[in-house]
Each structure stands twice: as structure tokens, then as C-alpha cells.
């Protein structure tokens, strides 16, 4: 007669007794470890990029400063795409955090280089966008450095 008891047996997919479980857990933690910090910054980077892209229409300089409006639209879309990259592949996008700092500095000086005779509203909008982008880039670079330092520490200590 067949055994029809309802006792729980280990399933074939259970890896808890596999000899490589500690190594797999450590590798998985290393892959995800640095990504969480940078993925948390993706939301603010996306919002700054969105405001940058829409700022010509929010501040009403799209008609008077067409070159600067196009510039802000392109840079804003680039920041939004960078934020999406930080969300989906934070480990691979960590190298672009320093580029985000450069974009922030560029946004601060862009009204005088790309635009022609910008008014105070345009200048303030680009300075705020640039400063926020620069600070978020520094935060992403710091998160990337912390995660790489944690990975080096784990490899050296053998944990």
C-alpha cells in the first residue's frame, strides 16, 4: 500500500543542504549590496531630471530661449534615463555617478554658455538643478565607494 501520510519532506528545489550555499549567499549579497544604496537615490535623480526637462515650460522661457530650452530638455531626459539605469542596474551604473557631478556643474554654467542674456528665473532654475544634480552625483559616488570598499573587506577577511 502507498504511503499517504502528510509529512513534509524536503523538495528537490531545496538548496539548504547544498555544499556551496555560503558561497552563493555571499556572492548574492555582494551583487546586491551596493545596489540598494544607489537605487534609493534613483528617485530623486529622476525627479531632478524631470524638472530639468520640463523647466523651460514651467518657468516660461521655452519661446525666448529656444537653445537653452532644448538643452534643458536633452539634459533632463539624460538624467531621467540615468536614474532608470540606477534603478535597474545599480552596480553597472555606479561609474556614471561622477558624470552626474559633471552634468551638475555644466547645468550651473549653461545659461551663460548656451543661452543668451538669461534672466534671474532661468539662472536660479539651472543653478538649483545643477546643485542638486551635483550633490546627488556625490551621494551616488559615495555609495559606490562604500559598496566597493565593503566588497574588498569581505574578500580580504574571507567572510
Describe this structure in words.
With 159 residues, the chain is mostly helical. The chain has one domain (23-157). The protein is 75% helix and 0% strand. It has helices at 21-58, 66-88, 90-93, 97-113, 120-157. α1 (21-58) runs antiparallel to α5 (120-157), α2 packs antiparallel against α4 and α4 runs antiparallel to α5 (120-157). The longest helix has 38 residues, at 21-58. The radius of gyration is 24 Å and the shape is elongated. The N and C termini lie far apart (50 Å). Residues 45-138 form the SPW repeat-containing integral membrane domain. This is SPW repeat-containing integral membrane domain-containing protein. The chain crosses the membrane at residues 38-59, 71-89, 96-115, 121-144.
SSE arrangement, N to C:
HHHHH
Shape: elongated
Helix proportion range: over 70%
Query: What is the number of E strands?
Result: 0
Largest sheet: none
Number of domains: 1
Radius of gyration: 24 Å
Low-confidence segments, ≥5 residues, pLDDT <50?
Answer: 152-157
Counting H and I runs of at least 4 residues, what is the number of helices?
5
Q: In what range is the share of β-strand residues?
A: under 5%
The computed structural class is: mainly alpha
Cα end-to-end separation: 50 Å
Mean pLDDT: 84
Transmembrane segments: 38-59, 71-89, 96-115, 121-144
Region (Disordered): 1-20
Keywords: Membrane, Transmembrane, Transmembrane helix
InterPro entries: SPW
